[in-house]
Structures are given as C-alpha cells and as structure tokens.
Amino acid sequence: MIVMARVCIMVWFQRIALGLLRCDYMLHEYTLKQVEMNTIASSFAGISTAITQLDRFILTEIGRLDSMEHIPPNGALAGLCNGMLDAWKMYNNKTAIILFIVEDVTYNICDQRFHEFEIRRLNPHVKVIRRTLTQMADRASLSKDKELIVDGNIVGVIYFRSGYETAAYHSQREWDARLLMERATKL
Ligand SMILES: *[C@@H]1O[C@H](CO)[C@@H](O)[C@H](O)[C@H]1NC(C)=O
After folding, report:
1. Which tens digit of pLDDT belongs to each residue from 140-165?
2. Which residue in 12, 70, 164, 181 has the most C-beta neighbors within 10 A?
3. CATH number for the domain harbouring residue 167
4. Ligand 1 center to residue 30 CA distance, Å?
C-alpha cells in the first residue's frame, strides 16, 4: 500500500481548521488505484516515509540499483508536519504549542513520535505535547480570551488521534473536554 498525505485548510467550528487527509493506493495490474481517503485521525505518514527508505535500502542490498528510479519520493511526513506548522503560524502566538490528543493506550505511538520529531526538526521553537481526553478533562481550561490552556501551555493546534469514536469518551467529562476544545478560539 502506498500512502500519500495531503493537507487542506478548512472552515470549521473555529474560523480556520486544518485537515490532514491521507490517500491510500494499491497496485492493480501494474497501475496504482486509489482505494481510500482518510479524513479522520489520519496517521502513518511517518511509517510510510520510513518504508520508502526501507525499500531503497533493500534494493541497494540486493543489487537492484537499476530499479531505484521506480520508487517515487515520499514526502508524507514533512507534508503533514508542515501543515501543522502552517496552522500554528496562522494562530500567531509564538508561545503556543501543538497538542496531540491520544488514546489511553496508543499502539500507533511510533508513527506519532515520527510526527513529533519532524515538527521539532522543522521548527525547534514549537513544542509538542500529548494528552488523553481524560487528562484534558482534568487539566484544560479556557482563558477569558477563549485560548485553550493545558498545564500552563497555550494550545495553537490540536491533532486529534483519538476522539473519533464514542468508546474514547469514558464519561461525560471526556465529552465536556471535547466541547471545551471545540469552543477554544482566539482567531
Ligand atoms: C500569546 O499568549 C499569551 C498568553 O495568553 C499572551 O500573554 C500573549 O500576549 C500572546 N501573544 C500574542 C502575540 O498574541
């Protein structure tokens, strides 16, 4: 499977919202066919970029450098991370951070960490933190200007890697935390 990432800026509850979209392709009789476009909690940009490097390494090891030209560049990871950084710039507060909302137990943590490290590589001034919905219920609040504050950090961008299915909301508190995040705005 080949993963391509796209980024779009959308109008949402807040005046501006960031969409991270993932298109998946599969090989069908020597042509690539798009099989899916993910619009919710898109991930695997980190893993797919690493797999491209693995494919190149294997071709080198088996002496098939002639086939290298058939492996297209994969910029999925930098694409999604630059999207998050563009959204961070639009928020326009240098002290703001990027928040990843994560599951209580995250099997996909390697992919998420790739994003975190790439954001830090692209712009070392931007801090990334990870919180669950329950932690947000315990620790998040809105300032009087409706900035989202968690553990003393102002949140400029949220990447939702959890919260897309009802099972992630253990009680009314997690729903309240989600509503709080949706209501946050400074733009
Ligand atoms: C960034 O947020 C902090 C905390 O609310 C605020 O004091 C500061 O003025 C903001 N900076 C800008 C440029 O809006």
Report:
1. 999 999 999 999 999 999 999 999 99
2. 181
3. 3.40.50.1760
4. 54
